[in-house]
Amino acid sequence: MKITKRQLRRIIKEEKKLLKESVADMVDLDDVIVGSSTELASVFGDLMMELFDEDPAMFSGRSTKEEWAEQVDAAVITVGAYIEEGIIKGIERAESMLHDGQFRDLGARGVSYPRRK
Question: Is the pLDDT of residue 110 over 60?
């Protein structure tokens, strides 16, 4: 099937509009994403610090509490970035699936979650 230049321009214009809307929506979500990932990473950090408090002998000869705290701080930053990246990728994937109509029939048969790769 051939399309005219005019049809192609219209399609490109519509796609640009969708892309702009998607980017604008992500800006609105940015604060929520950063806040959520920071909170989860903080919980991870607290749990890792509890490990030292529960069994300091496990760290004997490997790390002092101060050294462990520095390592945990670095890990918290990394975990937060990974969580943020995962949330963004998940949102983008779900939005793409939504635009493709992949959720169209879910109302009738119930929601099922896709398996992670």
Answer: no
Question: Amino acid identity, residue 100?
Answer: D
Tokens of 64: 């002092």
**pLDDT tens-place string over residues 25-48:** 666 788 888 899 999 999 999 999
SS3 90: helix
Higher pLDDT, 47 or 109: 47
CB 84 within 8 A of CB 33: yes
Task: Give the Cα separation of 117 and 112 in Å (integer).
Answer: 15
Q: Are 35 and 108 within 8 A, CB to CB?
A: no
Q: How far, in Å, CA of 44 to CA of 80, rounded? A: 9
CA proximity to 50, closest of 58, 60, 61: 58
To 10 degrees, what angle do helices 65-99 and 5-54 make?
A: 150
63 CB-near residues (< 8 Å, 6+ apart): 52, 71
For the chain, the domains span 30-96
